Amino acid sequence: MMRRAAVGLAGVLLLASCGGGTATPSGNPATATVAAPKPDIKIGLATAKSGAANFYNPQQSNGALLAVDQINAAGGIAGAKLQLIVEDDGSVRDQGITAFRKFIEQDKVVAILGPTLSAVAAGAHPVAQAAGVPVIAISNTGLGIVGKCEYGPCDWIFRASLGEQSAVPETVKAATQKLGLKKVVIIYGDGKFELDDLTIFKEAFKANGVTVSKEIAYTAKDVDFAPFVTQAKGENPDAVVASSLAGPAGKILDEVAKQMPGKRVIGGNGLNSAALLSNANAGLMVVGTAWSKASTDKTNTDFVAAYKTKFGADPDQFAAQSYTAMIVLADALKRSGTATDRAAVKKALEGVSGLATPLGAFSFTTDHDVKQPTFVMTVKDGQFIPFQ
Amino acid sequence: MAEQLYNAVFIGSIYALFALGFALVFSVLDILNLAHPTVFMLGAFVALFAIGTLGLPWFVALVVAVLVTGLFGIVLDRVAFAPLRRRGAPALSSMISSLAVTLIVVRLVELRYGGDFITFPAGAVPAFVLRVGDATFEGIRLAIVVLSVALMLVLTYVLQRTQLGRDLRALAENPRAARLLGVDVERAIAATFFVSSALGGLAGVLLAFAYNTLDSKMGVPLELRAFTVMVVGGMGSLPGAVIGAYILGFGEVASLVYLPTELRDAFAFGLLFLVLVARPTGLLGQKSPDRV
Questions:
Q1: Residue B63 domain flag
Q2: Which CATH number fits domain A165-289: 3.40.190.10, 3.40.50.1980, 3.40.50.2300, 3.30.10.10?
Q3: Identity of the residue in A215, A223, A251 whose CB atom sits nearest the CB atom of B222
Q4: Rounded distance between C-alpha atoms, residue A344 and residue A336, angstroms
Q5: DSSP H or E segment with residue B269
Q6: What is the predicted ipTM?
């Protein structure tokens, strides 16, 4: 704790010294001839380094760091370096809000990336909205993050993480066509993400003429998933849908493999987890993802290679998304021609179109949501591969 | 239907195995050991370390995990409870102190293994499956069912019929009188923590084997269940905890089968409420001097 406090204090002092170096116009002709270095462009990243969602790190921080390093190595934005300030959102709403307030009031950042969880974003994003600071959500896939938000207007919020409204219908369409689905059962959790997914799955199956014959709820407190799958088995469905996070999904996969051999498990972004790859039954899953490591697009292969060189490990989707968000922001900063005018940066972000990123050609919709390809995947030999 | 009955027995057995260690410490020492879910998790991770890093076979890993968690229980008592006991601190202090140990151990495990769930190396976990017609019975699950009942019987026997059991019961009744009667109180307490934590560790390893999944928070969902089964069965009664565990297991599965999903928790906790109205001390609960 002491050490953390000391590091924090050192960070604050460092930031204070950076702030002190801001160039101000001077009437003195002797100093005016020396070109002062441009002040850094500060960007905040709120991410879950601790708490329930801490397993998204270090990848989520690393992705953004890699992009910043590459941009700075290439000369920065019109000669100014990017400075990434990373704060832990603790996977909880209040800490996310505190991080956002610090970015806005103390660090005076030009834009913010994060926070990790949708539930934290629901608290933190309104802070940025009220202050007029552009935000790019890098891992929030639930409903109400952009476009129509419960807390009112959210026009300062952008999203670089493929929402479930986009990914799930693509997944359902592909699964229905290739597996000839007529009837499915949905097993769903009671969290916000899972309930949002349930709604989206139901609509998508309806649109594809597939009957959802039963919806079976579990709670975060449930430890054993055998009874839920036994209930699903009683319906004799063509496939089981897991509207869940990765932990329960692993248990559902195992139970389906045991109790309903030959059936597939269709899932949302919750199943898109590297931790599930080591599951012996991961090959049963069909999941729509925002990124594929196997994509041969040059921007992606370059990203994967650079990440591996810098961090000594493969990137995951969360790294790819935070990297992409930073590339997108840099593109907007370049076009806006400003390092401080947040409204100009927001306007430039709205103009991002067809940008080459590891996620594919990247644009924002008029609702500020991401427009990119969906990769429908399954797993083979511990790797995500395209579902065919 | 038979499959759901089996599922219910299995779930009840998990709750029982977990609750036994929890109930033991409470019955003897009047301490709600909030570090018990952490000991449970620690057992699973020690087994993972033994299998994944040391390359030991699963049955050796199981024994190692049980011994390590048992010893951890003694350390836990020395560090978190004994200093407070010596100063006559209130029960709340012990709860907070055990919570602190939980936070520290969970964080240490996360530093080594991360916060996400992980699995054992492929093929490392015993996978014996018995198929009867359309239904499947896994060896590990059957073992959990048998062990939870067997351990309850063994523990009850030890407490009722052995010298250690008599010492523990004397301790539960009145620590001061027990000391005057020549009971080695510190040894008895250490034995309680060893057995309780070894049971918790065993439960953790078996559950991690059964699901081939472990994570740093795996004990958390079981904690509330353990409270519930202890209250239903009678605070401090070991057979009561096991019976309570099966009632909760059957209640949960029955509500899944017969009721709309929204009413599941209402059913389980409604049952708890009914038991308490009918028998405020729980099914096998007795007034404090007679328990254990």
A1: yes
A2: 3.40.50.2300
A3: A223
A4: 6
A5: helix B264-278
A6: 0.82
N residues, chain B: 292
User: Regarding beta strands A111-113 and A355-357, do their DSSP bridges make them parallel or antiparallel, or are they unpaired?
Assistant: unpaired
The range of the structural domain enclosing residue B207 comes to 2-117+134-217
CB contact at 8 A, A64 and A84: yes
How many domains in chain B? 1
Q: Could you give the dihedral angle defined by the CA atoms of residues B161, B162, B164 and B167, in that order, rounded to the nearest 10 degrees?
A: 50
How big is the A-B interface in CB pairs under 8 Å?
77
Residues in chain B within 8 Å Cβ distance of A116: none
Contact between A217 and B261 using a beta-carbon 8 Å cutoff: yes
Q: Split chain A (388 residues) into runs of 10 and give each run's mean pLDDT.
A: 44 39 40 68 94 84 97 94 96 95 96 94 96 96 88 95 91 96 95 89 97 92 91 95 91 92 92 84 93 91 97 92 97 91 96 96 95 93 88
pLDDT one-digit tens code per residue, B80-103: 999 998 888 888 888 899 999 999
Concatenating the DSSP letter of every residue in B278-290 gives H-TT-SS---GGG
CB B138 within 8 A of CB B128: yes
- Residue B256: is its pLDDT beyond 90? no
Among partner residues A221, A226, A280, which is closest to B7 by beta-carbon distance?
A: A226
- Residue A277 at interface with chain B, using a CB cutoff of 8 Å: no
Task: Note the pTM of the prediction, 2 decimals.
Answer: 0.77
CB contact under 8 A, B119 and A52: no
CB B47 within 8 A of CB B64: yes
Which chain B positions have a beta carbon within 8 Å of A251's beta carbon? 211, 213
Is residue B109 pLDDT above 80, yes or no?
yes
Q: Which CATH number fits domain A39-162+297-371: 3.40.50.2300, 3.30.365.10, 3.30.70.2570, 1.10.10.10?
A: 3.40.50.2300
Confidence of residue B134 (pLDDT cuts 50, 70, 90): low
Per CB-CB distance under 8 Å, the chain B contacts of A246 are 116-117
pLDDT above 80 (res B39): yes
Q: Find the closest chain A residue to B129 by CA distance.
A: A258
* Chain A residues whose beta carbon lies within 8 Å of the beta carbon of residue B3: 230, 259
**Interface mutation target, options A278, A316, A317, A379, chain B, most CBs of B under 10 Å:** A278
Q: Cβ contacts (< 8 Å) between B216 and chain A: which residues?
A: none
